[in-house]
Amino acid sequence: MTEPNRPPLEETPEVADAIEDDVAVDAFVTGGGPDSENPQFLAPGEEPIVRTGADQPWEPADLAVAEGRDPTPENVERARRELDRDGAAAIERTVP
Q1: Based on the number of CB atoms within 10 Å of its own CB, is 31 exposed (0-12), middle (13-18) or buried (19 or more)?
Q2: What pLDDT, in 10s, does the model give residues 59-95?
Q3: I need a labelling partner for 43 at 20 to 30 A (CA). Which of 3, 4, 17, 92 fits?
């Protein structure tokens, strides 16, 4: 309920001030970095820097949890075998 002498919120000076303060943020207007309208091109022969989930060390318990399993001894052992057998590919399947 509103007070009898109080205008609706939409008609208060504070709301009018907030609406008038609609200014652009410089960082978002230009120079904000590469995007679909301002792509960053690589020089010929330059390789892109791509970071994947396998760029960091993984413990078998981490892989088991990333796969949505509880870190029980059986699941950790299965993840250890998977890491030993497949290496980084085991991680890439789960955390690309």
Answers
A1: exposed
A2: 999 999 999 999 999 999 999 999 999 998 999 888 8
A3: 92
38 within domain boundaries: no
Contact between 80 and 74 (Cβ < 8 Å): no
Amino acid 6: pLDDT: 78
- Asked, for residue 47, whether it belongs to a domain, the answer is no
Whether this model's pTM surpasses 0.70: no
CB burial class (10 A; 0-12, 13-18, 19+) of residue 17? exposed
**Highest mean pLDDT pick, 14-18, 38-42, 62-66:** 62-66
Domain membership flag for residue 82: yes
Domain that holds residue 77: 53-94
Number of domains into which the chain is organized: 1
Q: Are 41 and 66 in contact (CB under 8 A)?
A: no
